[in-house]
Amino acid sequence: MGGDVNSATKVLADPTAYADDERLHASLADLRAHEPVAWVDQAPYRPFWAITKHADIMDIERANDLWLSEPRPVLVTAEADDLARAQLEAGFGLRTLIHMDDPHHRKVRAIGADWFRPKAMRDLKIRVDELAKRYVDKMRDIGGECDFVTEIAVNFPLYVILSLLGLPEEDFSRMHMLTQEMFGGDDDEYKRGTTPEEQMAVLTDFFNYFGALTASRRANPTDDLASAIANGLVDGELMSDVDTLSYYVIVASAGHDTTKDAISGGLHALIENPGELARLQADPGLMPTAVEEMIRWTTPVKEFMRTAAEDTTVRGVPIAKGESVYLAYVSGNRDEDVFDDPFRFDVGRDPNKHLSFGYGVHFCLGAALARMEMNSIFTELLPRLESIELAGEPELAATTFVGGLKHLPIRCSVR
Ligand code: HEM
Fold first, then answer.
1. Of the N and C termini of the chain, which has fewer Cβ atoms inside 10 Å?
2. Nearest atom in ligand 1 to 299's CA
3. Distance from Cα 362 to the centre of ligand 1, integer Å
4. Which pTM was predicted?
5. What mean pLDDT comes out for the span 348-354?
6. 303 CA distance to ligand 1 middle (Å)
7. What fold does the segment set 5-414 form as a domain?
8. Which residues form the signal peptide (predicted)?
């Protein structure tokens, strides 16, 4: 693109650009090289500063007293932002962990945290391995062509998260639809209706489902994450309805679409780099670094935002109190100053200080779970994979927030 910074900034505020990897990466490379702190003023979004260097993203996330999640944790249109705010003021809306700042954030995070620690992961591993086997068996049974995203990758992490929450498997299709409608909100294929009101109806459905769940887990607590959330105390009191329901929403949504994107994008990268696939098959001990590389490569969460609590500067650029920064994880993960040959997919990459799980106090609560799921499915699949190739064009979702492959048509032989 040769330093065309003006058009490069526009890309970040254009959902369709996220469905075109080459265009997105070329623009981000331009910004890193020429304007790493860039003002983006592009309707229908409110203006923001795009932060594209790895070191700046880390500095901002580390300084969580100066850079707040409230009131603008992610990039949404001005209209959607106003509506969400009005609904919260009316006592009905979404305020998840990612919307909160300390000290409240820390207390709310602690309620679910034990369910993501190593001991809980060890307890869950048998179930995760069993589900991984079920889906690799399904690939074998399909025998030939399938859409790896819709038939395999989407179901596996959803089942894992439903198991952790303690929800019944028959609720699978309902949760699947709702999380896609919520997280893939910019993409026509997932959209429910066209107005922000219709989009907010998705939230109402979520709240109705989880409202009933809370009542039942308070009446009859069981040994699962849903019970921990329903009965969790902040300063000795049960969480508010908004905080409780939002907790389920973040766990159900963040827990599966992100992982689906990393698994399907990871498999795509292995297909595109057969040498790396063969290397990993020959040396399964590389699995932990391969999983990290897939997570860096795909960067399922494209961005989070923070807002300045005081006048400050980033890389010498003055930023006024109340202005927001867009943390471009996709860019940080290809930063030439941090990654050796960043556009090379390397299953043995070490060190790999990617930002896909964010950094600091909001660091992804489910990172260990996502890593375990990916390890489990690729450890099951690769020794059984006799051949694999693309059977059509892979298609990326057009969304500024959480996204990856919508479709990955493959032809494979699995024993
Ligand atoms: C490859 C898969 C995943 C990716 C790329 C990912 C990415 C992220 C990112 C970037 C953040 C924000 C970090 C920040 O602001 O610094 C986050 C937060 C979070 N993630 Fe994940 N995530 C993944 C899987 C999961 C899973 C499986 C769960 C399980 C429930 C999960 C639950 C959460 C929660 C609850 C938060 C909010 C944490 C907080 O604000 O304190 N994520 N994730």
1. C
2. 5
3. 8
4. 0.94
5. 98
6. 12
7. Cytochrome p450 (1.10.630)
8. none
